Amino acid sequence: MTTVIKGGTVVTADRQWKADVAIEGETIAAIGEDLAGDSYIDAEGAYVIPGGIDPHTHLEMPFMGTTAAESFESGTFAAAAGGTTMLVDFCLPGADGSIRNAIHDWHRKSAPQICTDIGYHMAITGWNESIFDEMKDAVEMGVNSFKHFMAYKGALMVEDDEMFASFSRCRELGALPMVHAENGDLVAALQEKYFAAGMTGPEGHAHSRPPELEGEAANRAITIADAAGTPLYIVHVSCEQAHEAIRRARQKGMRVYGEPLIQFLTLDETEYFHPDWDHAARRVMSPPFRDKAHQASLWAGLQAGSLQVVATDHCAFTTAQKRRGRDDFRLIPNGSNGLEERLAVLWTEGVETGRLTPEEFVAVTSTNIARILNIYPRKGAIAVGADADIVVWDPKISRTIRAASHHSVLDYNVFEGVEVTAQARFTLSRGEVVWAWGQNSRPQPGRGRFVSRPPFPSAAQALSRWKALSAPRAIRRDPLNIPAGI
Ligand code: DUC
Ligand code: ZN
Ligand code: ZN
Ligand code: ZN
Predict the structure, then answer these.
(1) 333 C-alpha to center of ligand 1: Å?
(2) Angle 160-173/459-468 helices, nearest 10 degrees?
(3) Of 78, 134, 171, 237, which has the fewest Cβ atoms less than 10 A away?
(4) What does the pLDDT read at residue 486?
(5) Per-residue pLDDT averaged across 34-48, rounded?
C-alpha cells in the first residue's frame, strides 16, 4: 500500500520544491515528481512540511495544588488539529521522589490516551544519591533531557550546587540539561512584598517576576553549564535579558539553546491589567508575558538564529482552577494554552508578515528541536526513511481562533479572537491521517507511541577525542555531539 501526497510544495528547514511524497507503512518511501500510489492525499496549493514538534507541554501534571486539565488524549488530538505530530511532556517525580517511578507513572497515564507520538523530559527537583543513580535509568528508558526549576521556591526549585551536580551527571550520561530560568529567591521576596502592599490580583504576578530576574538566572545557569562542561537548553525565554545571555554564550562558543513561546511572541503584559479578573488570571504563567520591546527581541532572535525553537509550555488550567487564586495571585495555577494554535499563529505573525521564511518556520517548529533532542531525521524531516509525520499546510484557510471551536478541554483560549491565515489541511502521524480539515474523524486514542531518545555520544568519548588533538584549546565547551549549526 503506497499513499502519495500529491501536488504540494515540500518545505524543509533548508529549501522548498514542488514534489510528491510517497508513504509506505509508517515511513516516507520516495520524494519526487509524478509519483504513483494506491491512494492519494491532495496537497494542491499547499505546503508539505514535517509535523510540528512541541517540546514543552504539561499534560495532566499535578501542580500548585491542582492538576493541569489537558489530558494526554485531548492534548495530542488538539496538537494534531494544529499540525503538531509530536510533543515532549515534562515528567515530575511524585511524593517518593523516584525518577523511575515517575516515568512509569507517565507511561501509565499517557499510553492508553495518546493520538500522536510523545517523548518526555525529566524534572530534577532535588539532589541525592538515588537521583544520581536513577538519572542513568531515565536515559536507558529513553529520556535524555533533564529540566531544572530555578524558581518555585519551597516546591520544585533547586539550588546552584544541585544544578552543578546534576549538570555534571548529564555530561557523564550524554544527556541535555534544561532550565526554567528565574531567580526563585527574589521572585518569592517580591511576591511577598507586593502582596503585603495590597496587590492581590494578577498584576502582582507580572510585577513580581521582572525580566531582570530571568536574565540573572539565565546567566547563572550558563555559568554552571560552562563549569560542568555541558550544553544548555533554556526553556520559555521571554525577554531580552535572557536572550542576551544566550547570544553572549553562543558568541563565546557554547552550545546554549533558547526557546521562546508563541504566547511571548504575540501576547503582552497589558493582559495582566485587564479589568476582567478571569481574563487576566487565565494568562498567568511563568515567566509572564512581557512588553513589545521584548517581543521584538525574540523575533530578532529567531531571525538571527540566536533562538532556535518556538514552543508553548502548554499547561492548561480551567477558569474554575484559576479562581483558586481569586484573593491571592500567588495561588493562581501558572500556565496557558497554545498547543493547537502554535503553528497557525506563528505562520500568520511570522511568515505572512515577512519576519520568517517558510524554511525558518519549519526549522523553529520542528527540525531544530528534533536535532537538539537527538531524534533527527526520524522526526523533523521530510526525507526517505523518516517517519511519515507530515502536515499538508494550507496557507489559504483563514479562521478566527475561538474556545468554542478548539479541541482543548479548556473553557477559554488565550488566543480568543485572533485571526489566522493558515491551517493544517491534513495531519499524518507515521503515515496515518489523524486530522483532516472539515471532517469529523478522530484518531484512535492509544495509537501514539513513546519515542525513546538515545543519549548523545558520552562526554568521556568526546573528551578523549578532544585530548587526541594536542593543540591547547578549551575542551570544556563541546562535550556532547549535538550537530553543529543550530
Ligand atoms: N510555568 C508555567 O507557567 N506553568 C508550568 C510550569 C512553569 O514553569
Ligand atoms: Zn537560593
Ligand atoms: Zn518553567
Ligand atoms: Zn513548563
Answers:
(1) 8
(2) 70
(3) 134
(4) 72
(5) 98
